[in-house]
User: Which sequence fits this backbone?
């Protein structure tokens, strides 16, 4: 932009802005009226000025992002046919979920011969299978993300796949034999959906990553870590969260002389999704996907508006897919790389998140590290404390979900439209530690409404 356009205007300092605001407040206290702090301890001002800008260098910010969709592998040939169908509808990357080994050839032979990012989420650990999958996807020209996270499995399920020693050994074998640059994928969505604050979420990602860096060291020289993050509806905070994650990862990686770029897959959070007035979920997921784009996610996998109570269905998936297509191809969210760069407010948020998360990370390390604190139950306790505060704010309608705890439609009925049980299930089983339990904010309100229908 030509600076001559502004030549006739004198620059205004932050001090002058503040003085004008104080004058307009007509005696009201500036600090009490206009300053506030978020649950994360982030301090928010009523305005930001170029004097606040401490320009941050965010390494690895992508120049483009991919529309991804999730496919469950029950029959590999059926999953491959689904890929072909979705490619014709604008999907660009695929996230496969599998609970058991499958015929790799039946999946890959039916996929198109083009460069694709294939993300896998496994509920098991099998070195031979993963090695074969890595080799065969590479031979076909695909980029394979295995997303193996032995520590994340402990946090989410309460158990190792086998035990600490065996899991670490198998992961080492993968680094040595799989010939794959994308073995580890840390899933932080479990912390977000359990009620952790953004600062906690970032600190736990960093501490979890440090466990891998510290144990495997030089074996990670060729590795690029993948992070699967849940995105909430606090628009600017979530933009800053993704940026802070890249910044924190690069800072830690530099300490180990490891590559500083990472890969981020974003998906809307479950914690703030609702059963009643479910169309509001579409509004939430739209802004959440926008945050993911502007924050710099590499791939975005949207959440269907009815995912919490309907089985996967063509209509719900089509709407979720179209939200991303509209953002990318009609709203032109793919044409500007790193649009948040230099934004006074977002840069300030990014720095505050990074600083506070780094401080919490140091506390975790001083307390023995992430795995130790998981086993001792300290991580779970901190998340529960944060979740309880958020739940209390929701119960008092200080944190609002429109259609659920404010502006309810009393005629809304859902009892006979539930394909899936939408609430927390507790199945008693033996675990090494207490798992991190995910739970939606609206569950108690919804259960009461269902009972009263």
Assistant:
């Amino acid at each position: 932009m030509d600076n001559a356009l502004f030549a006739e205007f004198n620059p205004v300092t932050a001090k002058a802005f503040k003085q004008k605001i104080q004058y307009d407040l007509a005696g009201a206290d500036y600090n009490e009226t206009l300053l506030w702090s978020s649950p994360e301890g982030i301090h928010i001002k009523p305005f930001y000025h170029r004097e606040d800008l401490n320009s941050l260098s965010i390494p690895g910010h992508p120049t483009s992002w991919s529309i991804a969709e999730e496919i469950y592998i029950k029959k590999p040939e059926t999953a491959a046919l689904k890929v072909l169908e979705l490619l014709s509808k604008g999907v660009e990357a695929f996230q496969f979920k599998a609970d058991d080994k499958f015929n790799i050839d039946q999946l890959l032979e039916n996929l198109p011969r083009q460069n694709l990012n294939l993300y896998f989420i496994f509920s098991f650990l099998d070195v031979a299978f993963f090695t074969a999958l890595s080799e065969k996807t590479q031979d076909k020209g695909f980029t394979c993300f295995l997303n193996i996270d032995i520590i994340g499995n402990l946090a989410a399920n309460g158990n190792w796949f086998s035990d600490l020693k065996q899991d670490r050994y198998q992961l080492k074998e993968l680094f040595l034999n799989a010939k794959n640059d994308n073995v580890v994928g840390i899933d932080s969505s479990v912390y977000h959906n359990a009620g952790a604050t953004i600062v906690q979420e970032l600190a736990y990602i960093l501490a979890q990553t440090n466990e891998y860096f510290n144990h495997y060291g030089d074996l990670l020289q060729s590795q690029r870590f993948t992070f699967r993050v849940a995105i909430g509806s606090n628009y600017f905070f979530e933009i800053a969260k993704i940026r802070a994650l890249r910044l924190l990862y690069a800072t830690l990686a530099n300490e180990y002389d490891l590559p500083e770029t990472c890969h981020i897959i974003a998906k809307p959070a479950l914690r703030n999704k609702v059963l009643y007035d479910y169309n509001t979920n579409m509004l939430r997921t739209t802004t959440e996907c926008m945050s993911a784009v502007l924050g710099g996610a590499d791939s975005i996998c949207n959440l269907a508006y009815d995912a919490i109570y309907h089985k996967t269905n063509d209509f719900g998936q089509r709407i979720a897919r179209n939200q991303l297509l509209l953002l990318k191809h009609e709203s032109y969210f793919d044409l500007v790389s790193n649009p948040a760069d230099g934004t006074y407010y977002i840069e300030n948020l990014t720095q505050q998140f990074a600083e506070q998360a780094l401080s919490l990370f140091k506390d975790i390390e001083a307390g023995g590290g992430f795995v130790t604190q998981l086993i001792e139950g300290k991580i779970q306790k901190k998340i529960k404390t944060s979740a309880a505060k958020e739940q209390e704010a929701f119960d008092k309608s200080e944190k609002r979900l429109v259609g659920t705890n404010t502006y309810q439609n009393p005629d809304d009925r859902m009892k006979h439209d539930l394909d899936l049980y939408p609430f927390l299930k507790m199945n008693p089983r033996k675990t090494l530690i207490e798992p991190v339990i995910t739970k939606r904010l609206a569950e108690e309100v919804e259960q009461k409404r269902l009972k009263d229908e």
Residues 3-52 form one domain.
